[in-house]
Amino acid sequence: MLKYNEIALNIEKKIVQQDLKQGTKLPNFNEMIQEYGVSKSTIVKALTILEQRGVIYQVQGSGVFVRRKRKYGYINVIENQGFTTDLDDFTITSQVLTVEKILPPKNVQENLALKTEEQVFHVKRIRFINEQILCLEESYFCESVVPYLNEEIAGGSIFHYLRDALKLNIGFSDKYLKVKKLNAEHAQTLKLQLDDPAMYSEELFYLTSGKPFDYSKTVYHYQHSQFFLQSSNLNN
Amino acid sequence: MLKYNEIALNIEKKIVQQDLKQGTKLPNFNEMIQEYGVSKSTIVKALTILEQRGVIYQVQGSGVFVRRKRKYGYINVIENQGFTTDLDDFTITSQVLTVEKILPPKNVQENLALKTEEQVFHVKRIRFINEQILCLEESYFCESVVPYLNEEIAGGSIFHYLRDALKLNIGFSDKYLKVKKLNAEHAQTLKLQLDDPAMYSEELFYLTSGKPFDYSKTVYHYQHSQFFLQSSNLNN
DNA sequence: GAGTGGTCTAGACCACCCT
DNA sequence: GGGTGGTCTAGACCACTCG
Question: Can you say whether the dihedral through the CA atoms of B234, B207, A234, A111 is positive or negative?
Answer without folding.
Answer: positive
